[in-house]
Design brief:
Largest sheet: 6 strands, mixed
Number of strands: 12
Strand order of the largest sheet: 7-6-8-9-10-12
Strand content: 15-25%
Distance between the termini: 86 Å
Number of helices: 14
Helix content: 40-55%
Structural class: alpha/beta
Radius of gyration: 28 Å
């Protein structure tokens, strides 16, 4: 006896169906035409509500899932948006909590809108070329950039190729930009140090090829100039190692400094270590203020006074702006999110 017939009752058993359900099968189950199913699947609004419900019920019963490539040919949409981080994977997936916070904000908004997030890192020329081919090849509906450097030509190239772009940190582009009030936040921090009686206030600035690095240094200089104080500057690259090295340089050059504004919490963490190694107490000998208010700030020794920027909200705002662009709606060319000083023990 054949295996298909060896069952209770003696009736034949059909082999399980293979392959994905087709539009034709959904149409037959729903009692409508293939064209009606296609219009429902592709989100067209010209289908009567009772027919739409019948198609959706049939698709659910059969487990029908639209073929993404075929659907994109009709709708000219992939329902995917790329987030490009112009850093190496080692930097993005390091102890720098800026990147996961931005990603979390972007992902939350896109997920709520039924869109997929494609994450690309472009820390090398080869990675930039791959990202360019991927984006302009129509694999995503738009591209968001965070942590941009001045020399990065990829956003401008995307714009020239007609790809919708939203960026963080490069406001001169002809694309919507989301950023924070770097200058105002730093001025508040330096003014706080001055009010505490600190007079020789140094800074560990961020990279000067990034808007965040330049504007935080500008805020520091403006606040000191208003108080008729001299600027004392070292430059890092937003890593803890660079903060440690810059703090050691400042102590060697200006041993009588009594406060330091550090342009990121991660660099401030390195600066605190350098101060401990030099036998300087914080805040007794030297007050320290950072910028970001990542989780690390609360676990520093002592807990770090810092300028809070809403990092996850940067990601959410970028995603919301991109979604509005894709819907053909007007968007603000520049959105500046507020910062605030969070006082802890280090200052």
């Amino acid at each position: 006896m054949r295996r298909a017939e060896a069952v209770a009752g003696g009736g034949p058993v059909r082999a399980p169906r293979t392959g994905r359900p087709t539009l034709e099968e959904v149409a037959e189950r729903a009692g409508v035409s293939r064209a009606t199913v296609s219009r429902v699947v592709n989100g067209q609004t010209t289908v009567a509500e009772d027919l739409r419900r019948a198609v959706e019920a049939a698709a659910a019963e059969l487990g029908y899932v639209p073929h993404a490539a075929a659907r994109s040919l009709v709708t000219h949409r992939t329902d995917s948006v790329a987030l490009i981080l112009p850093e190496s994977p080692n930097r993005v997936f390091s102890d720098d909590q800026f990147f996961p916070s931005v990603i979390r904000g972007v992902a939350a908004e896109l997920d709520a809108a039924g869109k997929l997030l494609v994450l690309l890192t472009t820390g090398s020329a080869e990675a930039r070329s791959r990202a360019e081919r991927y984006a302009v090849g129509g694999h995503v509906d738009g591209v968001m950039f965070a942590s941009l450097h001045d020399a990065d030509l990829l956003p401008e190239l995307m714009l020239r190729r007609g790809v919708p772009v939203v960026c963080n940190g490069l406001p001169h582009l002809a694309a919507p930009c989301i950023d924070v009030d770097h200058i105002g936040g730093v001025k508040a921090a330096v003014e706080f140090l001055l009010a505490k009686g600190r007079r020789r206030i140094a800074t560990v600035a961020g990279p000067q090829d990034m808007v965040a690095g330049r504007e935080r240094l500008d805020g520091y200089r403006q606040a000191l100039a208003a108080a008729d104080r001299r600027a004392i500057v070292a430059v890092g690259d937003f890593t803890a190692e660079s903060g440690h090295a810059a703090m050691r340089q400042l102590l060697a050059d200006e041993p009588d400094l009594d406060a330091v504004f550090v342009a990121s919490d991660l660099m401030a963490h390195g600066a605190l270590q350098a101060l401990r190694e030099a036998g300087r107490s914080v805040p007794g000998d030297v007050s320290v203020i950072g910028f970001d208010d990542i989780a690390l700030a609360t676990y520093c020794d002592p807990p770090l006074t810092t300028v809070r920027q809403p990092i996850a909200e940067i990601g959410r705002s970028m995603a919301r702006t991109m979604l509005r662009l894709l819907e053909g709606r007007e968007v603000e060319p520049l959105t500046i999110l507020p910062t605030e000083l969070v006082v802890r023990t280090s200052a």
